[in-house]
Amino acid sequence: MRKRLHQTPGAGIFFRKCDQLVKKNVQFYCDFDGTIARNDVGEQLFLRFGSAETCYAAVREWMRGEISSTEMYRRECETARVSRKELAAFASGQELDPHFKGFIDACRNHGYEVMILSDGFKTYIDLILAHAGITGLPVYSNDIEFFATDRIRPVFPYEAGSCGKCANCKGYQIRRHRQEGSTIVYVGDGYSDRCGALEADIIFAKKDLLNYCRQEQIDCFAYTTFADVYKKCQKIGLFD
Ligand SMILES: [Mg+2]
Ligand SMILES: [Zn+2]
Fold it and tell me: Which CATH number belongs to the domain containing residue 29 in this structure?
């Protein structure tokens, strides 16, 4: 059950509730596309190597709740023509939030766990993190496999735990990884972060996730980069 925090730092209620947070055992769950990576890499992948028209139509249907993200990804992968080499070159051109590395160091110094939850694909996430020199972070996501030189299909290792809307439901991932009594912090930016955010004690949100939280009156901190997340974590006492 998530604790509701007041959205305006400085309000008395906010500090009282933050005092109740368990600071010894904090788990950070971070989205990848548009959160750790500057771009929505999955979207870029299909725009670059697939049919923009088919992909946008599939995304619109998914956002309206008409199809699950597994169906969206099957349609998108169908249109893509990309080799392993092209995918690696594409991944090496992707940028991360420049403050993510510092944030990871702070989490490690405090003994906090960080997990990446993505409804994108592990292949490009691993390539991008390795290229940025970031190692040792668990990644729970969908994946792609090559079945010809330049053809890919999606693989959904966590489909059985899906809520029916997500391919890799982040709510399911948090429920299976959360430790008893831990404080769950979620950082995300999109529609696929909704199930994850609902399991969290503290939500950092931007873009579509922020709109969703505001619409549903779910307390969250708005952020732009991991520098904001870091500063806010210091302010509420999670970081020294
Ligand atoms: Mg995202
Ligand atoms: Zn879900």
Answer: 3.40.50.1000
